[in-house]
Amino acid sequence: MIDDGKPIFVQISEQIENDILGGSLAEESQIPSTNEFAAFYRINPATAGKGVARLVDDGILYKKRGIGMFVTTGARDRLIERRRDEFRKDYLRPLLDEAAKLGITPEQVTDMIRKDQIAS
Q1: 64 DSSP β-pair partners
Q2: CA-CA to 11 of 20 to 30 Å: which in 42, 52, 54, 93?
Q3: Is the Transcription regulation keyword given for this protein (predicted)?
Q4: How far apart are CA 27 and CA 38, in angstroms?
Q5: Cβ within 8 Å of residue 56, ≥6 positions away
Q6: How far apart are CA 19 and CA 1, in angstroms?
Q7: DSSP letter at 60?
Q8: What is the DSSP string of 65-108?
């Protein structure tokens, strides 16, 4: 999983997000401890903790004192909404801007996508 292009703590938080989106971490379920992440990825526990803290700050995880970290109720829906917004901004908007430069209408883009799906 470790990719040199991104900070490790970001990769840890993204992996947890992906596990929530994929259903392997259900809402209200406990996530592995920072020490477990650190041992598995052979990283400093503080680095793993920084990745978990990002998700706490975003309201995706919460801490049960003395027990561990848990997935917040509604976390999956929040992640889907945020990722859809990011998808729109990072992929869809540039696609439509480039299509407009080439004289391709949104309807033509939609047709291209449909044809590509059929060909796949």
Answers
A1: 68
A2: 93
A3: yes
A4: 23
A5: 62, 63, 69
A6: 13
A7: S
A8: TTTEEEEPTTHHHHHHHHHHHHHIIIIIHHHHHHHHHTT--HHH
Note whether 1 and 13 are within 8 A (CB): no
C-alpha–C-alpha distance, residues 9 and 52, integer Å? 8
* 3-state secondary structure at position 45: helix
Q: How far apart are CA 24 and CA 28, in angstroms?
A: 12
Length of the chain: 120
Q: Which two tokens stand for residue 45?
A: 């526990």
What is the structure's pLDDT at 118? 87
Question: What is the token pair recorded at 5?
Answer: 């292009």
The sign of the CA dihedral 79, 80, 85, 91 is positive
The set of residues, in sequence order, having a beta carbon less than 8 Å from that of 78 and lying 6+ positions away, is 58, 59, 60, 72
Closest CA to 51 of 4, 9, 104, 93: 9
